[in-house]
User: Fold this.
Amino acid sequence: VQRNQEFRMQIAILTYDRMTALDAVGPYEVLGRLPGAEVVFVGARRGAVRTDQGSLGLSVDATLADVSRPDIVLVPGGPGQEDLMADEPTLDWLRRVDAGTDWTTSVCTGSLLLAAAGLMTGRRAASHWLARHRLADYGAAPVADRVVRDGKYLTAAGVSAGIDMALSLADWLAGPDVAQTIQLTTEYAPQPPFHAGSPDTAPGHLVEAMRAASRHTTLTP
Amino acid sequence: VQRNQEFRMQIAILTYDRMTALDAVGPYEVLGRLPGAEVVFVGARRGAVRTDQGSLGLSVDATLADVSRPDIVLVPGGPGQEDLMADEPTLDWLRRVDAGTDWTTSVCTGSLLLAAAGLMTGRRAASHWLARHRLADYGAAPVADRVVRDGKYLTAAGVSAGIDMALSLADWLAGPDVAQTIQLTTEYAPQPPFHAGSPDTAPGHLVEAMRAASRHTTLTP
Assistant:
């Protein structure tokens, strides 16, 4: 992908402890390759956050105060999103940057954060299949699609869905040749060995086991 | 996924500057959810490495000397692999841990590192489609498949192929119910908006443009 030196597009990816790493890294791998893209990982403090499985930290190069006018904001999900839904500085930052973005995006339970900030009221949105129903608590309409667009709000289903969302966004931002070149660079021709990636296609006993487990915890994977 | 407290399986993921983040994070998201899995990100120095696009650092919790007997080793690819192919401490570590692993694995150009360490001689292996031919320089047989198994050596094609590889490995290690539960948790039901993830299916002019660009650089994406 050739970079146009005259065009700059800032993409802010929110970070927080116990986020799911792939929610952020999947879209990053795609969007960061767009011409003129300048990605910044932003969080409450510079340094690093620890992702949900505990073995991986992601760098945080900028504080919320450092990033006030991104062109695109991306909010990943993960168990840590639960605490953040009551964190006024984060919700306030989301509202402030959303006022200036071209695209406000989320992956997995990140859409619950956008919803808690009041940004999804009356809008259609995706989320992780186990958490999707909670969007209604914030006046949003849960949609069981992998990627949902409502105006400039682009939300993806669980974890890996962020890759598909980012490729669609790459197409809209830079055209099909750029999007397809990024897909070819990342060799994204998926061949999952099973068809269990959705509750509609996974074995019923596994779907039920996950639903039962989620009833007994506050887990929102 | 329930964790069996009595069973421990150490999975070492090699890190280095200018590696491709998704090569490591895709498989991590899958393998880290296996019962008993203990993932450690290992590198030349504790701290962090900066991935190839420059905007993301990954934590490094252990040095090469700290990790001597992992059950599984995973070697990601990325442009930084080029320098590492002449780095004797890294190659020596790969040889030493490989002597004790149950599985030695790679994503993307990570297989070139395994090959440079002398571990793939006479073996079939996958790599990024633009770099695959270089495996022959080390006596390995390049295979144009997404995931290639040769004994305990499991190698994946470019970047995103590591997710598919990890799901297959999850199946072999823990059975189809665990593997499918992980696939359902990460909602891995891919819907790429294009079919450009492989040189066999991408538009010819884009494949040719990438081939031409790779001839003029040492880039091995």
User: Anything to note?
Assistant: The longest strand of chain B covers residues 37-43.
